[in-house]
Amino acid sequence: MFVRIATAAIVVMASAVPSWAAQRENFELFQDVSQQVLRYPQYTIFDSLHAEVQDGVVTLTGKVTMPYKARDLEHRVAQVDGVRQVRNEITTLPVSSFDNDLRFRIARAIYGNSHFWRYGAMVNPPIHIIVDGGRVTLEGVVNSDMDRMLARSIASSFNAFSVTSDLKTDAEVEQELERL
After folding, report:
1. What is the pLDDT of residues 158-170, one digit of tens each?
2. Residue range of the domain that includes 60
3. Which one of 3, 13, 162, 170 has the largest count of C-beta atoms within 10 Å of its C-beta?
4. CA–CA separation, 43 and 67 (whole Å)
5. Residue 86 contacts by C-beta under 8 Å, 6 or more apart in sequence?
6. Same-domain status, 82 and 107
7. Number of domains comprising the chain
8. Do 102 and 128 contact (CB within 8 A), yes or no?
9. What is the CATH number of the domain that holds 34?
10. What is the pTM of this model?
11. pLDDT at 6 over 90
12. Which of 44, 70, 92 is where one domain is finished?
């Protein structure tokens, strides 16, 4: 009886170890990929990139303002140790003087607001302003709900067709990381 229980425990532990190891490896690889993206000098607050890592395969999604950025980011990510394959599903935002004007006006209003100066002073400002056909999406991480609401309020004061806030607070990001 004891041998069966011990054998069952070893089988359960053996099958759980690779899962945890794979999760840790995926998370570490994700961090390395993130660093490559953030170090890309052409990555701006007007671009948005998301990465999913599964067993060395990185899937890149999001939106960038210029087509060369998608190619450059794919190449940079492919150079990361441990990346076996990169699936580039990044889309390029359409060229539009209205969208460009809206991007710059909203960015100036948000980062010019004294409440957001500390964000604007960061090497990689955390609030990204994605404008696609006059529709604005705010993405990134802020310290509090108040920051999220204020950024949305500022962005809504322009002639955008719609404003969506996908901003997350530090606490929400920590909760998501704990679930991994």
Report:
1. 989 999 999 999 8
2. 2-92
3. 170
4. 12
5. 57, 58, 59, 60, 74, 77, 78
6. no
7. 2
8. no
9. 3.30.1340.30
10. 0.81
11. no
12. 92
